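TA notes, week 10

Several of you asked for a full example with nothing omitted. So below is the full record: structure tokens for the whole chain, then the designed sequence directly under it. When grading your own attempts, check the secondary structure regions first.
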């Protein structure tokens, strides 16, 4: 699960996102949650400059067809791919089949991402970590889809 959704202050602006959800609280109390911030795992600072994927989404970054760019123009694709790889290794280590990642992030977004213009406009697409996990068969949900993730857990364990 994205660390920022668990209240960890790892976002680019030094903040976190809070999720109040009884199912999530149960998972935490059962010790079933593995937390990761791909960007911090890749060595990025807190805070850090905002970054967006230009011209496409996470799959195109993984394929080397476009880049993640910081506000100001610095290309940071390598760090985003490295962070995604850390998340994937954690999934393999703990046999994780389901991820809940923060929507709209250039790493963690699974349905929507910002369009690369730094104007606050979002488009359909995935971040780099969400794309890499999905390529390896991991089901990715966002923080608004915890009920769906719970159903998927029961389906995979049935
Ligand atoms: S990379 Fe993911 S976990 Fe880290 S702050 Fe961004 S959305 Fe949260």
């Amino acid at each position: 699960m994205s660390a920022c959704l668990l209240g960890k202050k790892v976002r680019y602006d030094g903040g976190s996102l809070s999720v109040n959800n009884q199912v999530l609280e149960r998972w935490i109390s059962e010790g079933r949650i593995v937390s990761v911030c791909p960007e911090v795992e890749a060595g990025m600072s807190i805070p850090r400059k905002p970054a967006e994927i230009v011209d496409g989404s996470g799959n195109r970054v993984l394929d080397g067809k476009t880049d993640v760019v910081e506000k100001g123009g610095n290309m940071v694709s390598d760090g985003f791919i490295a962070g995604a790889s850390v998340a994937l290794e954690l999934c393999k280590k703990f046999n994780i089949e389901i991820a809940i990642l923060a929507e709209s992030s250039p790493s963690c977004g699974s349905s929507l991402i910002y369009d690369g213009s730094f104007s606050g406009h979002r488009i359909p697409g995935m971040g780099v970590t969400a794309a890499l996990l999905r390529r390896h068969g991991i089901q990715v949900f966002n923080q608004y889809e915890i009920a769906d993730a719970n159903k998927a857990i029961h389906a995979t364990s049935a």
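The two ends are 22 Å apart (CA to CA). Use that as a sanity check on your answer.
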